[in-house]
Structures are given as C-alpha cells and as structure tokens.
C-alpha cells in the first residue's frame, strides 16, 4: 500500500489518494512529531514529553510502544504483521532508544516542498501549502518548533518567488498576496521592500511610501532601531523616482515552474537555525535593547550573558536573535557547547555542526580536504566577509569560546555563561538580574491564567518570591500550578516553606533540576564545592560576610576570597541591606533560592549520616 503524508497545513494521511483516519489524538501527536522530524531519530524521552508534557503516566513507555504499533499498521509496515514489501514506502524503526519515521521525498509534502524549492520550482513548492504547518498541533513544543522552522522556510521561498515575479514585471498581480504576508510578519524588511516594489510597479507609489513609514515607526517602537541602511537607501531611491523601485519592463511570460533570472536554480536562503522563540518570554526589556545595540553596532559585536542557573540567559539570547533576522543577512546559528549529560562537547563536533548548518545554504562551504581535516580553518573562512549571528550556549571557560569567534568579517556572537569569562577581551557583559515581582507574577499568569492570578495577587507574589524570582524557579512553579488547577494559590504558597520542601515541590519525581544544580556546584574546585554546601547551614539565603565566616569556619579574609570566587561563578550575588540586589550601606550576599534549597537539602542529609555520639 502506498501511503503519503501532509504536514504543510492540517495533518493528512493518504492511501492512493484516499484520506485515512490517523487514529486517536495521542497517536496523531506521535505521528506529527515523527513526520516533522522525518528520517531523523527522536528519543523516547522527547516523544513521551510530547505526548504527556510534564505528567507522563508510569506506563508511558509501554503506551508509546502501543501507539508506534498503531502507526506501523497505518503505514502497512508492522514487524511481524506478514511479509514486508521489498522496499516499503514508509516505515518506522527503533534506533538507539528512539524512533525514526523513514520516508522518501515523495511520501511527505514537506520533503517535496524542499526538493522543488532547491530546484527553483518556487511556484510548485508554494502550491503544496494548505495553511500553517501542522495546524492543530502547535500546542506541543516539540512539534511547534519544527512547524516554526517550516513556516520560516515557506516565507523565504515566498520571498524568492515574489522577487522573480517582480523581475518579470508582474508586481501588480502579487500585491494582495504580499500584503497578506506582510501583515503576518510586519517587521520583516525584505518582505516590506518587495511589497513596496510591487506597489510601485502598480503605480501606487504613495502607498509604498506609507509602507516604509509604517515599518519605520514599528521598528522604533518594538526594537528601538531605525530601518536598515539597505532599506533606507531603497526608500531614498523611491523618493528620487530612480533605481530598482521603478516599474521594470515587461518580460516574457515565465513558465509555471519559476527559476532565477539566470536560469540557474534560485539560491538557497541563509541558515536561520535557532530554537523556538520562548512563547512566554517576559521582562528584561532593557537588556534586549542593550543587547540589540551591541550586536548591530559598528565594532565589538561580542556579548556575554552571565547569571546563575535559571536566570534566563539562553531565553534572552534566542529571543533577541529572533528579532534581528534582517540585520544578519548571512544567517543566524545556535550551538550548545555541552551535551545532555552536561559534559563539554569536542570542539571539532561543535565546529562541524556549525559548518553543516551553514554549508547547505549555499553560503560558501570551503572545498577540498581542508574542510574535513581542519574545521577551524573552514569555519573562519566561512565567517570572512559575512554578517551572521552566532549564539554560543553554556560556556564555562574562555578557551571554549575563542575558536568560534570571527577573526574577520562583520559577524556577531552572543555567549551565555554562568561565569563572567573576564578573559574574553572586548566583550560587552550583561549580568541578568532576577525578575521584578510584577514581572514574575506576569510570567506566572501567562501559564496558569491571568484571571487566577488576579483573583489572589498577594499569594501569587508570595509564591514567586519563594521560587527565587529567577525564570527557572518561576517556570517550575507555574508548570506545577498549571497541573494543580484545584489548589488555591494561598494553599500552594503555604507549601513553599523550607529549602527541602521547595525542591520537593518543584522537582516532583523529575530529578533533572537537582542534577543541574548538582552540576553547577560539582564543577567548582573542592573548596568552593564545600563552601556552597556549608552556606546551606545558614538560616537565610541572604547573609553577611561575618555569618559566612562562621559557617565556613575561617577568618573574614579567607571567607571574602571564597565568596568572591562564588560571585565569579554566578553562584552568589551582592545584595543590599534589605536583600534586594544592588549597592547598600551594609554589604550582604545572596544565594539563589533553588541553589540555597539544594545546599540546605545536602546539609540536612549530611547531618543525618553523622552518628548521634558525634553530634
């Protein structure tokens, strides 16, 4: 049986042109996840999270296997279900603790779209779209991230098609389509420029000028930026009634399958490979503006975002990068320096990931054996003369970052790190503070509902303070409250008392947060590791130097040096007399709430192991 799939719109399953029922909602989610990552392994953990979010049943793995069997029956390739075809069109295999849905290009509309786009058949590629990608499954983060990538690729191909139409002098017939697209992405400068050109070709120059003015005001309000130099130059040409904005002479009618004006396939767009823009991103407006200014400035486009575990460094970097697409025409790339186990990845692996992301975009992959033998040289060659944005996530030492920094060109780099990385010369450093209480409450309301928060705002404020006002803690408490819909905020706030209770309440049966906390402490030298755990003996996470010296059992001078090391590692902050961050008459130190809860938990367990006669 020949089964095909569609994800460029609502999910579709077709057998020889006849639509099939894809099964239950859970089975459809599983199918959508596998199709959105076709021919790529998805771990069982990722699929379980997609199916049950953060509350999987104890039988989740067995249930997952049941759904996989159901999909195999749907595609006619179930192991043990009779003789398989010599070459099944679609099959699902189990690989290394995960699953892969194998399909040829003809079996999935997204793959056919990419093939047509690469060959220059832009009109044919766009004709495959039936609506927003994977419509109906965007509430699942794993699927939503893939769908957003498809949507961005669709927009880039649409712009290439529109450019070809304008080159043929057919701008007037494209105005309705380009206007609809511009309404969905009002800050995308290339799209707006194409819209202005189409209006000019239709003799509607005043409307084209109005488009520029609208974009200029939106950029100023949303990003605090003027239009790019290219767009400003384009606008000046339009005002002078000269340049490429004038109607082009009519060209011979193009065939249904469009190619670039030269006859060669249309060049692939630059790489835009970022994680999904955090949907509930809140606060840090000043940091976004400052970071934007640094990255788009004339010199020194290197930014280091520092802060403790859970401060929102990665979210801020990704959110800002998503807003700067037009400022980096050669692409935006994201790379993690550490694997899921927290260990540093080999530099060669990191460089090859970056090169693999950049090379398919046709932006100049270095030829020959040098690329394979020396990825550092290849990476620097790719960066030379280009303007790309690179986000380097979770650095711990300067030596991990330096090989990735551009030696030439106009590219910009954002590094997220817990330590300040003071050895990176010329870097602009941003230390992320905790949320303000109002920001944290707003973040909470976005997850559990603004009405629930407004009904008891005092308890909501008490909850976010107990969670430490860091994005990680507030997100954990928000996710927990979203599950506990029946629990009043006042009752839940009463639970968050005592360090051990906080971790137990937020982590539940998931050890990941404790693992990350243990990792942040375990990377310290032995003296620093021991100091953090000893500070957990203090009665409050905000303390003076003298109180620290007492629990560390050392003189104030030695205690000060230890605390300074912890400040550099972003495991402590300097607080004012009332515990709020900032300068104060009496210097106090503050430990983030989750780290303090972890330190208290470890201190309590250590005390339980001491024999009674030694206490």
Strand content: 5-15%
What's the CATH architecture of the largest domain? 3-Layer(aba) Sandwich
State the strand order across the main sheet.
7-9-10-11-8-12
**Given this structure, which CATH class of the largest domain is correct?**
Alpha Beta
Q: Globular, elongated, flat, extended or rod-shaped: what is the shape?
A: globular
How many separate domains make up the residues?
5
How many H/I helices? 27
Structural class: alpha/beta
Uncertain parts: 79-88, 242-267, 361-372, 578-585
CATH superfamily of the largest domain: P-loop containing nucleotide triphosphate hydrolases
Return the average pLDDT rounded to an integer. Answer: 81
- The residue fraction in helices comes out at 40-55%
Distance between the termini: 74 Å
Q: Which fold does the CATH topology of the largest domain refer to?
A: Rossmann fold
The biggest sheet amounts to: 6 strands, parallel
Total beta strands: 15
Overall radius of gyration: 27 Å
């Amino acid at each position: 049986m020949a089964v095909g799939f569609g994800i460029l719109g609502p999910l579709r399953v077709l057998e020889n042109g006849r639509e099939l029922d894809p099964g239950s909602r859970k089975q459809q989610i599983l199918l959508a996840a596998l199709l959105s990552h076709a021919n790529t392994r998805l771990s069982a953990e990722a699929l379980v999270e997609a199916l049950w979010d953060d509350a999987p049943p104890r039988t989740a793995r067995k249930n997952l296997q049941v759904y996989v069997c159901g999909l195999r029956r749907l595609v006619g390739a179930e192991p043990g279900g009779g003789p398989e075809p010599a070459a099944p069109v679609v099959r699902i295999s189990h690989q290394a603790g995960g699953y892969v849905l194998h399909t040829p290009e003809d079996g999935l509309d997204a793959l056919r779209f990419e093939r047509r786009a690469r060959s220059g058949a832009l009109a044919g590629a766009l004709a495959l779209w039936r609506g927003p990608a994977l419509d109906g499954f965007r509430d699942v983060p794993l699927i939503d991230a893939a769908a957003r990538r498809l949507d961005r690729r669709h927009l880039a191909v649409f712009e290439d098609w529109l450019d070809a139409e304008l080159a043929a002098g057919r701008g007037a017939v494209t105005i309705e389509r380009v206007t609809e697209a511009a309404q969905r992405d009002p800050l995308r400068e290339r799209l707006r420029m194409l819209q202005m050109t189409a209006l000019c070709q239709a003799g509607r120059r005043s409307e084209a000028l109005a488009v520029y003015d609208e974009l200029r005001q939106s950029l100023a309000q949303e990003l605090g930026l003027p239009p790019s130099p290219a767009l400003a130059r384009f606008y000046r040409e339009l005002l002078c009634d000269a340049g490429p904005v004038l109607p082009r002479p009519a060209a011979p009618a193009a065939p249904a399958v469009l190619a670039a004006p030269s006859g060669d396939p249309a060049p692939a767009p630059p790489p835009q490979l970022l994680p999904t823009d955090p949907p509930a991103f809140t606060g840090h407006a000043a940091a976004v503006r400052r970071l934007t200014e640094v990255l788009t400035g004339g010199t020194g486009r290197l930014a280091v975002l520092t802060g403790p575990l859970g401060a929102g460094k990665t979210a801020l970097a990704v959110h800002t990068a998503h807003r700067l697409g037009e400022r980096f025409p050669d692409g935006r790339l994201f790379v993690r320096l550490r694997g899921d186990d927290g260990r540093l990845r080999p530099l060669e692996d990191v460089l090859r990931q970056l090169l693999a992301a950049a090379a398919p975009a046709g932006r100049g992959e270095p030829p020959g054996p040098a690329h394979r033998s020396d990825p550092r040289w290849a990476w620097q060659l790719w960066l030379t003369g280009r303007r790309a944005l690179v986000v380097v996530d979770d650095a711990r030492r300067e030596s991990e970052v330096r090989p990735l920094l551009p030696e030439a060109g106009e590219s910009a780099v954002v590094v997220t790190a817990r330590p300040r990385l003071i050895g990176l010369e010329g870097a602009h450093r941003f230390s992320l503070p905790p949320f303000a209480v109002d920001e944290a409450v707003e973040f909470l309301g976005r997850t559990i509902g603004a009405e629930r928060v407004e009904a008891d705002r005092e308890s909501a404020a008490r909850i976010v303070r107990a969670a430490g006002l860091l994005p990680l803690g507030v997100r954990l408490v928000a996710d927990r409250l979203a599950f506990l819909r029946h629990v009043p905020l006042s009752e839940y706030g009463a639970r968050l008392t005592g360090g051990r209770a906080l971790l137990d309440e937020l982590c539940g049966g998931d050890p990941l947060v404790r693992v990350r906390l243990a990792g942040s402490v375990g990377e310290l030298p032995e003296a620093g590791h021991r100091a953090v755990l000893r500070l957990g003996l203090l009665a409050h996470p905000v303390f003076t130097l003298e109180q620290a010296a007492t629990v560390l059992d050392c003189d104030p001078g030695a205690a000060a040096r230890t605390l300074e090391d912890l400040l550099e590692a972003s495991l402590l902050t300097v607080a004012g007399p009332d515990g709020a961050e900032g300068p104060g008459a009496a210097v106090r130190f503050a430990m983030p709430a989750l780290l303090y809860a972890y330190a208290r938990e470890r201190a309590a367990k250590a005390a339980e192991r001491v024999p009674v006669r030694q206490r």
